[in-house]
Structures are given as structure tokens and as C-alpha cells.
Q: What sequence folds into this?
């Protein structure tokens, strides 16, 4: 990986981003090196919100709704923060000055923010003609007006839906629309079985082959045997993989989603023997789950 050098601000903690100062989200996203997601083709169409699919009491970075757009049903994943759910100070936490010299503030943000993580992962799946084949199909991104989001929070009694106090916010950020990703709506789930587990394993290994590491592997993030959540995914090129390669810890982070997958299967049904790692002693030896999730909280 060849990270972008900071041109004007060598220290990512200093200065305000220029690439993220627009009130409008247009074109391929995110505007950085690597894969990108296109806008939803019916972005100008009205969105009818039918029901809340996610838990309104769960504290997290998004809510998922069943919606109708242009007379078709979709799952709409709306990111909590209008502009920047992810505090840039969290992105640089734990990095040395030398490590921070390799990246500018925009790169750190585009690699860390949950919405952009979804965009980068789905952009890669689309590039490789895997959209809808190894994960739920994505139709692009759109936005939801801030006033509509406030109405939804009241209608569905959503407790945790705030923009938060951010270090670098552009003028008028309170009025900015909320960012969202449009996906297929999977109405009927399937019970975990050896056949489904083998399919899920194959899908995960295929994504990893193309540089996508989902990390947050758990049953609630699957529908119909397909992964539906990439908000904590790491897609190459990524600053966190680059830094841990320099630290000699790359293998730990590259194995994290495999370990999480094996633990998920074991916890769900011990009779299912599908595994991604041949030696289960690796689970006790590496255990990167806590470290990864501290860097990419839910």
C-alpha cells in the first residue's frame, strides 16, 4: 500500500478537511484512493418509510428501515451522523507521530467512517462482479433530509440518533442530510445449517481474496445466508492494515474475521463443524477481536 502523503497538513490532528466541506454528497464516494460506490439511480424519488428493521434501543452507528422507492421495496441503512459520525480524533488515537505522517486527515476519515466503509466494500464487490453474490446486493447510496430523520426518530422511538460533538464540522452541518445505503430487502431469513455455513464460509473467503475484511461477523449481520453489514469492514488499501504491517501485527488483523466466523458458528450450533481455520488453537492464541472492535466500535 502506498498511502497518500499529507500535502498541507503533516499532522492529521491539525487543520480542517477540504474534501469534506460540501453540504452535498455527489459522485462516487468516498473521494480517495481505492474502490468507490455510485449514487442510487432513483435518488430523486420520494422515500416511503414502512417499518424499522433494526433495534431502536440499540446504541450504534446506523438504523435500518424497510422502505419503498419508485414502487420497489428496499432496505435502507441510514448512518446516524449527518456528516461525521466518526470523530477524527478517534481515527488517530494510538498512532505515533511517525505513523500519522503517512496519512492526511481525509484519508483517515474515509477509511474509518462507517458510511464510507460500506461504500468502499461495496465498491470493491461491484468492481469484481460480486454484488449480490457474496453479500446482499447494494444499489448505491442516497441521502435523507435532516428534518425527515427527526420525524423518523420520533415515529419509531429511536433513542440513539445524534450527530455528536465533532471536532471539525463545516458551516451548516446541522442542516445536512443523513447519508444512507440502499440494499436489497431480504424478507425471509434461513436457519443456519451445514450447507448455509459452507456457503457463508465460501463468501467470506472470496471477499478476503479481493481485499475486503468484514470483521463484524455475527449471525445478526446475515440475512438469507448473505452478509448485510460492512460498516466496520476494512477494504484495501487501508491505513490500519498499512500501520499494522509496519508494526509486525498484520497477520493478527487479517485473521480477525476468520476467528470471528469460527466463533460465530461454534456459538450458534456446536454440531456444525464448518471452520475457516484448520487449527482451533489459533483462536486462543491470537484473539484480536477486542483490539479490532476497540478501533472500530459498533
A:
Amino acid at each position: 500500500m502506498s498511502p497518500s502523503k499529507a500535502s498541507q497538513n503533516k499532522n492529521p490532528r491539525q487543520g480542517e478537511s477540504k474534501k469534506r466541506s460540501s453540504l452535498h454528497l455527489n459522485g462516487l464516494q468516498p473521494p480517495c484512493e481505492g474502490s468507490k460506490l455510485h449514487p442510487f439511480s432513483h435518488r430523486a424519488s420520494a422515500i416511503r418509510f414502512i417499518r424499522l428493521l433494526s433495534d431502536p434501543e440499540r446504541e450504534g452507528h446506523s438504523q435500518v428501515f424497510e422502505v419503498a422507492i419508485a414502487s420497489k421495496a428496499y432496505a435502507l441503512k441510514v448512518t446516524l451522523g449527518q456528516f461525521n459520525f466518526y470523530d477524527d480524533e478517534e481515527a488517530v488515537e494510538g498512532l505515533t507521530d511517525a505513523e500519522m505522517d503517512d496519512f492526511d486527515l481525509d484519508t483517515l476519515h474515509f477509511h474509518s467512517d462507517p458510511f464510507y466503509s460500506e461504500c468502499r466494500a461495496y465498491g470493491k464487490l461491484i468492481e469484481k462482479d460480486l454484488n449480490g453474490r457474496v453479500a446482499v446486493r447494494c444499489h448505491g447510496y442516497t441521502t435523507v433530509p435532516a428534518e425527515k430523520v427527526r420525524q423518523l426518530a420520533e415515529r419509531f422511538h429511536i433513542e440513539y440518533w445524534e450527530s455528536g460533538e465533532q471536532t471539525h464540522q463545516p458551516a451548516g452541518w446541522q442542516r445536512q442530510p443523513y447519508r444512507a445505503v440502499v440494499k436489497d430487502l431480504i424478507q425471509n431469513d434461513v436457519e443456519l445449517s451445514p450447507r448455509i455455513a459452507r456457503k457463508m464460509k465460501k463468501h467470506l473467503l472470496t471477499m478476503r481474496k479481493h481485499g475486503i475484511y468484514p470483521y463484524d461477523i455475527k449471525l445478526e449481520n446475515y440475512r438469507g445466508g448473505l452478509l448485510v453489514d460492512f460498516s466496520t469492514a476494512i477494504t484495501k488499501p487501508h491505513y490500519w492494515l498499512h500501520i499494522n504491517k509496519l508494526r509486525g501485527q498484520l497477520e493478527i488483523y487479517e485473521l480477525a474475521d476468520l476467528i470471528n466466523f469460527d466463533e460465530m458458528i461454534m456459538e450458534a450450533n456446536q454440531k456444525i463443524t464448518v471452520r475457516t481455520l484448520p487449527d482451533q488453537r489459533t483462536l486462543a492464541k491470537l484473539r484480536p477481536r477486542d483490539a479490532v472492535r476497540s478501533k472500530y466500535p459498533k
User: Anything to note?
Assistant: The first strand starts at residue 47 and ends at 52. The chain has eleven helices and nine strands.
